[in-house]
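Lecture notes, unit on protein representations.

Consider one protein chain, 445 amino acids long.
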Amino acid sequence: MKSKLFKLLSIILIFFIIFSIWSLSLYERVDSNVFRYNDWKKLESIDNLFLGASPVYRGYNANLANELTDQTCFSLGTSLQSFEGSYYLLKASNDSATLKNVYLQLSFSGLIDTPTSTRGDQIVIDYITDPIDKLMYSKSSLDQLVYIKPLSIYANSVNTSRPNFNQIGILKDNIHYLLNKNELEDDYSVIASSTQDYLGNGFVTNTTSVDYGNVEVKHRHWAFGDYSKKEDYKEIKYLLKIISYCKENDINLTLISMPYYPARFITIDNYSEYENYVSKLTEEYDVEYYNFNLIKIDYLDLTESEFKDDKHLNYVGAAKFTTAFSKLMALRTDGEDISKYFFSSWEEKQYEYNRVLGLFIESEVINDKAYIKSEAAIPTDLLAEYRYFIYVDNTLVTYVDYSVNDNYSFTLEENIDYLVRIESRQIGSTADYEAYQEIKLGGGE
């Protein structure tokens, strides 16, 4: 009997070891999430906790906020974080530390539609300590009844199908981290890259920036449904659970929208529906909301160079946002009505931008002829003009000067590749251009 039991235990142990090595080989190298978790776990109290998706952890510089406010601040954003994920992170944070203020990101794209990110969901699970919550969240978000990460190192980006045998160094790096965790857990330099750094307190910064005028825009539309049936949506259910949880636990909750590059809002054809929906919700449930896409430009002015892309701030932009945000929250604490620093709608806000903010380009080839349709992202009632450059082998072969013509076509010659650059500006502007896009077209393709 003892012999059989010993064999069974040996088999289980061997399986555990093999599965652990398999798991470690699945992970990417130790990344910022290891250090973010370690920093979070050390905190006994958090004055200002930010929750939300990637615009949060890239846009809120908690280190700078600590200096500006003399408070403990932490950014607990994760990739494509849903309200369900935010709810469980909120509970885990309140179990781990004393919470005072929580700032939760609202996004027009995620208010109704549940974001999906296996990587982000797995990161959230690492923070959940309550076994029932862990089980519920893993089943709901990952469709797995039991979620096991032997020897978990809190790294992200898991390939659940097979190990990364082509990157065997990953296994070596991850084991090295585990064996030297105490020495390495405060050494952020081990994950530094040429474009991204982790600077502590949950803040992941990016040093890249958008080129002036080179913001690609897309037409967007989200259906928000009947407000009276809002609880039919999973995301709204969890948003309401967050509101209730904060009230029950004496946590001050504020809803915010992180600043995106403004061209995104010009091409959303029903943004006013989002504004109306959120207005009803915040009024019904008595929670404050500040949309930093509507903040007046005199108080926060962000340009392309301060964005990583059209929805993420870079290091410079995060510093500007964090400074403005911290000042506003201090004024609110002192009893000032800070709504005067915001426009009430995008319809009003857009006129602060007296130029073309981006370009939407459509192209198609029919019978060896290329057709290009250009559309400027420009505030309502303002007009744009366009010009076209056509290059072959880096040589300009055709130039069409500025005009209001937003359509252009030309014949493609066989076996020749073309680069087409479209530039746009507001009519009457003296700028060389205010926005541009480049597209490649192959002869006859």
